[in-house]
User: Which sequence fits this backbone?
């Protein structure tokens, strides 16, 4: 039995769909199981047992992990993420789970310039000593997050950022789900770390030129200083301070560390990753 923790999130949901497509029965955990069950498409719902569990409640986790032997651990970034994920690791080990697949992030290092990545490092360190095999997925920026730019593009044809001319890796969350499903269903799982990217990296200038060409009208990129971008995201975008800080930190990471595409996804799945052009084409109506 495979358990998906964080099943209501983007990567958890994508993994459920990928596992269902493979015909694999899955147990999905949620604080609101009725809402999660109603959000699943028919084929995924047919293969998924939705179970109540709360990451803040270790007893509920142990009950939900009973009888499982593999766990996907993917949780939303937030102030309590490390504590919640460590709760899940301890409960999974106590219940006899034999393999844990964690969705982490690039630069998951003790001195990472990205606070969220430092948190991922703490969880990864615990996984290395917990006595079960562990696979760590490190996806780069989700293509789906680009949809957050859609209102500004539709209204004013503008994208704000703080990356200069640095290129960023983007990966379709559906590919993350496919990669997670591949690792979760491997007959002989082993320890490993898997960076996940799309087929190429894009600067904001290249991204806006691509979108402008597809829309048939100009889309321009406005480069801001990091502090200016933070103020814009909080003041104009209504982001919580911690999330705006995270966005700025990951954009500065792309400036400080050149991002290049990686072929891990192709090696895992035997196919090329989905392209940014295809993703934008599917969602072009959102940017009009």
Assistant:
């Amino acid at each position: 039995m495979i358990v998906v923790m964080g099943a209501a999130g983007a990567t958890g949901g994508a993994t459920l769909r990928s596992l269902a497509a493979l015909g694999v029965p899955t147990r999905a955990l949620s604080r609101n199981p009725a809402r999660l069950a109603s959000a699943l498409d028919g084929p995924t719902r047919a293969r998924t047992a939705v179970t109540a569990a709360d990451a803040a409640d270790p007893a509920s986790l142990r009950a939900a992990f009973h009888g499982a032997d593999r766990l996907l651990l993917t949780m939303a970034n937030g102030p309590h993420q490390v504590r919640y994920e460590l709760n899940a690791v301890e409960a999974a080990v106590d219940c006899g789970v034999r393999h844990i697949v964690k969705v982490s992030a690039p630069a998951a290092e003790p001195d990472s310039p990205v606070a969220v990545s430092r948190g991922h490092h703490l969880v990864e360190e615990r996984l290395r000593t917990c006595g079960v095999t562990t696979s760590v997925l490190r996806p780069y920026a989700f293509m789906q997050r680009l949809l957050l730019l859609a209102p500004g593009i539709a209204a004013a044809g503008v994208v704000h950022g703080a990356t200069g001319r640095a290129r960023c890796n983007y990966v379709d969350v559906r590919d993350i789900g496919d990669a997670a499903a591949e690792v979760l269903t491997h007959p002989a799982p082993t320890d490993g770390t898997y960076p996940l990217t799309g087929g190429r990296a894009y600067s904001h200038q290249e991204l806006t030129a691509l979108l402008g060409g597809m829309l048939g009208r100009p889309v321009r990129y406005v480069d801001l200083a990091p502090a200016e971008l933070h103020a814009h995201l909080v003041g104009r975008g209504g982001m919580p301070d911690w999330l705006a800080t995270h966005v700025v930190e990951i954009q500065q990471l792309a400036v400080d560390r050149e991002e290049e595409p990686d072929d891990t996804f192709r090696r895992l799945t035997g196919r090329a990753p989905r392209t940014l052009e295809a993703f934008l084409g599917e969602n072009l109506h959102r940017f009009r």
Q: What stands out?
A: The longest strand covers residues 133-139. The chain has a mean pLDDT of 96. Residues 241-256 form the longest helix (16 residues). Residues 215 and 285 are 9 Å apart (CA to CA).
